[in-house]
Amino acid sequence: MTRILGFTMCAALLMTTYAWAAMGKEAHPLKAAAGSKAETHINEGIEHYEKGHWDVAKKHFTEAEKADPKSAEAHYDLALTLDKAGDHGGATKHFQKAHDLGKDNAEIHDSEILKKHLKM
């Protein structure tokens, strides 16, 4: 019985991990809005994100968010990176901020990964 319970728990954990990973499979970081102070860091972050350098991308997106705290794209990109790194709580926080700030950005509001994190 203990072996079956252990197997069931492992299977559930793997399915949950796979589900979270699949949510971000098609998601791509967004470029900064025109004139944003976050533009340079977002561009650098995107370059590293696309190479799978999550830690470096995270640093750039964090700096982008600091340079322009009202940049929905900086929050969205940081959320994607946090999700890739397994920090789902942090990702949800930044997806919420991106959602709140990016009212006119259809890419943000139509994002499946954002909707799943925010349970929309």
Overall description:
- With 120 residues, the chain is mainly α.
- The protein has a single domain (2-117), classed as Tetratricopeptide repeat domain (Serine Threonine Protein Phosphatase 5, Tetratricopeptide repeat, Alpha Horseshoe).
- The protein has seven helices and no strands.
- Helix 3 (54-67) packs antiparallel against helix 4 (72-84) and helix 4 (72-84) runs antiparallel to helix 5 (88-101).
- The termini are far apart.
- The model is unreliable at 1-24 (pLDDT under 50).
Q: Roughly how many Å is the radius of gyration?
A: 16 Å
Largest sheet: none
Number of helices: 7
Low-confidence stretches: 1-24
CATH superfamily: Tetratricopeptide repeat domain
| Helical/strand content category | mainly alpha
Question: Architecture in CATH?
Answer: Alpha Horseshoe
Beta-strand residue fraction: under 5%
Q: Tell me, what's the shape?
A: globular
In CATH's first tier, which class applies? Mainly Alpha
| Spatial gap, N to C terminus | 38 Å
Could you tell me the number of beta strands?
0
- Mean pLDDT over the full residue set: 85
Do you know the CATH topology?
Serine Threonine Protein Phosphatase 5, Tetratricopeptide repeat
Approximate helicity band: over 70%
The SSE string, one letter per element, is HHHHHHH
Number of domains: 1
List the helices and strands and how they pair.
Blueprint: H1 2-23, H2 39-50, H3 54-67, H4 72-84, H5 88-101, H6 106-109, H7 112-117
Helix pairs in contact: 2-3, 2-4, 3-4, 4-5
Key terms for this structure?
120 residues, mainly alpha, Serine Threonine Protein Phosphatase 5, Tetratricopeptide repeat
